[in-house]
Amino acid sequence: MRSENISILGLILAGGLSRRMGGTPKFSARIGGVSLIERVISLVRDQCGALAINPYEATAETQAAFAGIGLPLVADAVLGHAGPLAGVLAGLDYAWQKGLSHVLSVPCDCPFLPADLAARLRAASLETRDGLACAASGGRIHPVVALWPTRLREDLRRALIDQGLRKVGQFQHGYDMASVEWNFRKRDPFFNINTPDDLLRAQDLLAPNEDED
């Protein structure tokens, strides 16, 4: 792990309703015999100083579902299924309490995240006024895959509670934010799974990836 990444909390967002997956929680869907959340954990574990999972709420049922993973659960800071921004805020509060400076937010349904994600976002964030950076690929920005400084937590709290803001990109556009592009030929490192068909496609993409040669 790069020394500058020790102060980063890797926050795995797992609070979605999985409506297009037929109600089956996405985090537990499997490709290559491994659950999506286990794959994401393995990809970001060595990039961050600490990891946590963000479910919508930390009920007894939720705690049981994640019990075998062994990571702390950080429930949404705003109730009512306020979306990923509520999860990011919970992560920022948790990271601040732990003395960490940043949160790297990643969804639980992106099984091909790059090994240099935290390092490149961190480097790009240093060139901005506000310390924000998010990933991009194929000409598309991925607002949820982002590096957030903990000092923005009160701004985000006001946006969520006082302004009712719900879109990640809308909040980010109010700040000086870097966008870091990942080029690929075969497999988008930010391919995400929303449907059973996406799950089948991800299984096909598990084959050796020429982009990683």
Give the gist of this structure:
With about 210 residues, the protein is α/β, with parallel strands linked by helices.
Walk me through this protein's architecture:
The chain is of the alpha/beta class. The protein is built from seven helices and eight strands; from the N terminus they run βββαβααβαββααβα. The protein has helices spanning 36-44, 60-65, 84-97, 117-125, 153-161, 168-172, 196-205; strands at 8-13, 30-31, 34-35, 50-54, 102-107, 132-137, 140-149, 177-182. It has a six-stranded mixed β-sheet with strand order 4-1-5-7-6-8, sandwiched between helices.
Over the alpha carbons, how many angstroms does the gyration radius reach? 16 Å
The 3D shape can be described as globular
Number of helices: 7
Quaternary organisation of the protein chains: single chain
> How are strands sequenced across the largest beta sheet?
4-1-5-7-6-8
